[in-house]
Amino acid sequence: MLFSLRAATLSLAGIVALVAPAVASEGWIADFDEAVKIAKAEKKDLFVDFTGSDWCGWCKKLDAEVFSHEQFLTAAKKSFVLVALDFPRDEAIKAKVPNPKRNDELSKKYNIEGFPTLLLMTADGEVFGQMGYMPGGPEAFVPAMDELVKTGKKELSDAKVLVEAFTQAEGDAKLAAWDKLAEGLEGAKEGSVAAKLYVASIRAAMEFDKDNKGGRKLRAVKLLLKSGNGDDATFAAGRELDPKNENGLLELCVKAQFNSVRDDDGAKAALTALDALAAAGPIKDKAVAFDLHVTAAYWCSQFLNDSDRAKKYAAKAKEIGTDDARALEFLDSILNG
Asked: Do 295 and 2 touch, CB atoms closer than 8 A?
């Protein structure tokens, strides 16, 4: 997700509103490896909460609104061993974390990029679902969790079958098996954890269809970019195949570049890419266009101290339009500042 006004303002609101450290409800295990042993012995799955108990506003809201309620605990414990992996900042709280080094290893293994991140996984560590904060308390959270257990495990199973069929096939049958894989990834829901199983096999088309004669290289690049699984080779291929954004690949490359920004230099490079995209032609996806420009305006106004450029991007974002009143208010604050 782009670091848009929406995400920024909500994050700040959560942090300001909740300043006291969150304490996990009883029944949570802080040692992942110990939880695995229990899950295997009890034939249960793992519900793993990656949290920042003393600083993460949304983690505190989730604990207060969902995890501390008996309705959630009763439902979750039927199928899961509950695991809380904490990443606190206060030294006194850090000292209570059983194995911070192991927590760091797990954070890297599962590519945790924000808190709270909730992973539903088997006792063998195979992830079949991912959740985060959602409003509505346990009344909303528990049904969503139950549904994810059903759909997530089925998607994982289906993906394994398709990947195995592609791996074993040869000749024309392998191309047909790849097409089935592509259909599977196209049909995966946004944020589907099982989608990651498709990636290596989908990427293979960039080699066996190097010249895009069968159209599979282009299809592969689009799928990888849309699913958030692009890498440098994918970005290069996208720019090569669609330099004028006629197929919407170039805008997906720029969106991925925005998502990867971690510092000022990265932001400047992403803004240059956005300018080149705008010069190539209209951005096809209105939502992508708006998010790119409002994010660009935010970066320029808050981090890069470039008010003229911020106003340029803000004006373009308003021209594209949105139903988000708070985003429009933010854009007006830049334009009138």
From this structure: yes
Query: Could you give the CA distance from residue 67 to residue 138 in angstroms, rounded to a whole number?
Result: 8
Domain boundaries, the chain: 17-133
pLDDT in tens, 88-147: 999 999 999 999 999 999 999 998 988 999 999 999 999 999 999 999 999 999 999 999
- Nearest residue to 196 (alpha-carbon basis) of 241, 156, 144: 156
State residue 79's pLDDT score.
Answer: 96
Q: Please tell me the predicted confidence (pLDDT) of residue 27.
A: 85
Q: Which two tokens stand for residue 94?
A: 């850090």
Count of residues in the chain: 337
What tokens were used for 154? 């089925």
pLDDT, tens digit, 9 for 90 and up, residues 250-308: 999 999 999 888 899 999 999 999 999 999 989 999 999 999 999 999 999 999 999 99
DSSP string, 54-88: TT-HHHHHHIIIIITSHHHHHHHHHHEEEEEEE--
Domain 17-133 carries which CATH code?
A: 3.40.30.10
Tell me which residue of 27, 25, 121 sits closest to 64, measured CA to CA. 25
Residue 260 has a pLDDT of 85
Residues whose CB falls within 8 Å of the CB of residue 140, separated by 6 or more in sequence, listed in order = 134
Task: Characterize the bridge pairing of strands 45-51 and 80-86.
Answer: parallel
d(C-alpha 168, C-alpha 111), whole Å: 29
pLDDT above 70 for 1: no
Copy the structure tokens of residue 60: 């505190």
Give the whole-angstrom CA distance, residue 131 versus residue 67: 13
Enumerate long-range contacts of 253-257, CB under 8 Å, 24 or more apart: 253/225, 254/292, 255/2, 255/225, 255/288, 255/291, 255/292, 256/225, 256/228, 256/230
Q: Is the pLDDT of residue 311 over 90?
A: yes
